[in-house]
Amino acid sequence: MTDQTSTHFYVPIGEDEREICLGPEGSVAHVSRVVRMIQGRWKLPILFRLYADPSLRTLQLKRDLPGISQKMLTAHLRELAEDGLIERIDFGEKPLRVEYQLSDAGRNFLPVLIAMRRFSLKHPA
Question: What is the CATH number assigned to the segment(s) 42-125?
Fold first, then answer.
């Protein structure tokens, strides 16, 4: 009987099957892209704050995330918007009025984060 570890179920070991997992469009590339989307000290706190409220202005996010600089908040909001996890709503008013809210992709990402939390609870460091 052959020892079949879980690796064999997820990482194809045949030469012609490796592209599925390790190729430029394979599983590793897709998971790495998602990890990059949430990388950064403040991205997850921003997302979780937006899960709690349907839309927030920049000033409210800054108040709710003690320690974040305006520069870092702006950079992370821009990156999250570019990655499609949040939407920037510009009301076109003077003075400038902008709000941020989760996009459909951002709302669909919540179960992934919940699964990551469950994994962390079951596998303490």
Answer: 1.10.10.10
